[in-house]
Amino acid sequence: MKGMKGRFAGFTALLDRLSGSPAAVAGVSGTRALIGFIGFMFYASNYGERDYLFGPHGVYLWQDFIDGVQENGTFSLYALSTSGAWFELVFHLGMIAALAVTFGVGGRLVLAVHWVFLWSVYQRIPLILDGGDNLAYIVLPMLLLTNCYDRFSFSTGLVRRWADRVPGVVRAMSPALHNLGVAAVAGQICLVYVVSGLYKVQGRMWQDGTALFYVLRIPEFEWPGVSRLLYENDMLVMAGTYGATLFMVYFPLGVLVPSLRPWAALGSIGLHLSIALLMGLTSFALTMVACDLIFLSKGVEAGLRRARATGRRLGGVLRDRKMWPERDAPPVAAEHTGNTGVLTRTAEKMGSISGSTEQADHNAARTA
């Protein structure tokens, strides 16, 4: 009976801790900023060809686009009109929303707007996507539950004024909702790794350690001059194939152990940066890296504190430099600035006061 009470007390203490203070605030804020940057770079990298790729008369035929939207039962703001002006308006508003999310302007409202615009532009031409879009679709609504604007953001004051109008009961639920959103993102990343790893385990090329040999030889994913050096080395191919499979399968176990969590996250970041470089799947790789930041929240927070301390030191140095000319100024500088007459008149006044005092003392002595 005592054991049951102890376990129940421990469980309630865990619930109190999870609902009392938000976890991984710096990490989830970094996730929001990086996902916003990825969306902005998608717009910026295709800006010159935007009409060819996303316009009403682009390479992806308009009727095929409309049929795909209706068949999937989804939506896209680009499907509302064939007007070129409407296309330009939607495209540039989406670009602005992505930039606002990157810099942390507008709060959850702008984050939701960014999700709508990002979904719309991805639906317009799904042929050029690399898989990062699927993860962004899922993660962005989860971020709406979190306090992802507490770090790396510029406060306009408007969101804070709106937040003050929220009932106290709802504000009291904020830490619990935040932690729920963080847990949802972490669970989604673990699910991606486990499913991907289990699919690899079932493949013959992954079982015999030759999968990377064939992957790196695909022309669309090849890095000229570098991929060849890798797939011609049998040891690197075998180590990379088996290492990637084992890492993906056991990643959730590493996340569950607090001492291994940062190392698992760093390993994941290294894996996906290599995918970005060797295969060119930049959007997918950076989206995974953004989600990995929630496991490195303490490191992100420590780096942010060091950056602030460095900024304060630099500000102090600059302020001191502005004071140097005043410190080094000679004490007689007034004589060379046209103030000699003022100093002379002041000295004369002091002399006259002294003389009057001496005369008054002399008269008092004679009277005595």
UniProtKB/TrEMBL annotation:
Report whether Membrane shows up as a keyword of the record: yes
Q: Which SMART domains match?
A: HTTM
Alphabetic keyword roster: Membrane, Transmembrane, Transmembrane helix
Outline the extent of the HTTM-like domain: 18-300
Question: Mainly localized where?
Answer: membrane
What is the annotated signal peptide range for this record? none
Q: How does it sit in the membrane?
A: Multi-pass membrane protein
| Cellular compartments per GO CC | endomembrane system
Q: Where are the transmembrane segments?
A: 89-122, 172-195, 236-257, 269-296
Q: Where in the cell is the protein located? A: Endomembrane system
Protein name, entry field: Vitamin K-dependent gamma-carboxylase
Q: Which organism is it from?
A: Streptomyces wuyuanensis
